[in-house]
Amino acid sequence: MTPAFKRILLKLSGEALMGDLPYGADPERIAAIARQVKTVTDRGVEIAIVVGGGNIYRGLKGAAAGMDRATGDYMGMLATVLNALALQDALEKIGAVTRVQSAITISEVAEPYIRRRAMRHLERGRIVIFAAGTGNPFFTTDTAAALRALEIHAEAILMGKHGVQGVYSADPRLDSGASFIPEISHQEAIEQRLQVMDSTALSLCMDNGLPLYVFNIDDERNIDRIVCGERVGTVVRTAR
């Protein structure tokens, strides 16, 4: 099928890399995500990735109790670099060409984030993995995803969630009465305080008309299905 998008940004939470582990990274889960991404790339779609760090930083929360917020955030940024390198390794093992760009300078393992260089990599068919969030404390990787997507002119953000099909009226793991929401506007998601993205990221997407596709990353067909124009999960778009 002809892809519905030319360039997308995939946002992966750190939890999406855990599989069934209590924390850390599951090699099989990472390999499964890499296969999904490679399939989309083979269709000619340019894809960038922003990855979170909750799977690693979750194990450090006890040690970080009482720590300065900025210091804790920088630790979280470093956790995203570890995840980016693991994902890069999995992608390259199946023949993908990748680049990791970090918002924090770590020249031995990643390029610095340079917008024009990132766009050039995408134009040449390389998968670009953005690490270290925005490089600033007090901003989440959700905000980094919205910012990078707008900077590289992505047509949509695909948000892979672990264990849920999309957006619900409440957390379905805690509330059995939570109802699935197939489509919602950015403004409604903000007003209802739904756990789609943080409000800063949602506002960025709303102000710039950038749609979000929230879906279950556990199904290996979902990224390709969305790219091919199928309706999967929840669509968050600017109200018409």
Give start-end ranges of low-pLDDT stretches: none
Mean of all residue-level pLDDT scores? 92
Integer tally of domains: 1
Amino- and carboxy-terminal Cα gap: 28 Å
* Percent in helix: 25-40%
For the biggest sheet, the summary is:
9 strands, mixed
Shape: globular
Q: Order of strands side by side in the largest beta sheet?
A: 4-3-5-2-1-6-10-11-9
Q: Determine the CATH superfamily.
A: Acetylglutamate kinase-like
CATH architecture: 3-Layer(aba) Sandwich
Q: What does this 3D model show about the protein?
A:
The protein has 240 residues and is of the alpha/beta class. The chain has a single domain, classed as Carbamate kinase. It is built from 9 helices and 11 strands. The protein has helices at residues 27-42, 54-57, 61-64, 69-93, 115-123, 141-151, 186-191, 199-207, 222-227, and strands spanning 7-12, 46-51, 98-102, 111-112, 127-131, 157-161, 167-168, 180-181, 183-185, 212-216, 234-237. Strands 4-3-5-2-1-6-10-11-9 form a 9-stranded mixed sheet, with helices on both faces. A two-stranded antiparallel sheet has the order 7-8. Helix 1 (27-42) links the parallel strand 1 and strand 2. Helix 1 (27-42) packs across helix 4 and helix 6 packs parallel to helix 8. The longest helix has 25 residues, at 69-93. The chain is globular. The mean pLDDT is 92.
Note the main attributes of this structure.
two-stranded antiparallel ribbon, alpha/beta, 240 residues, Carbamate kinase, globular, 9 helices, 19% strand, 11 strands
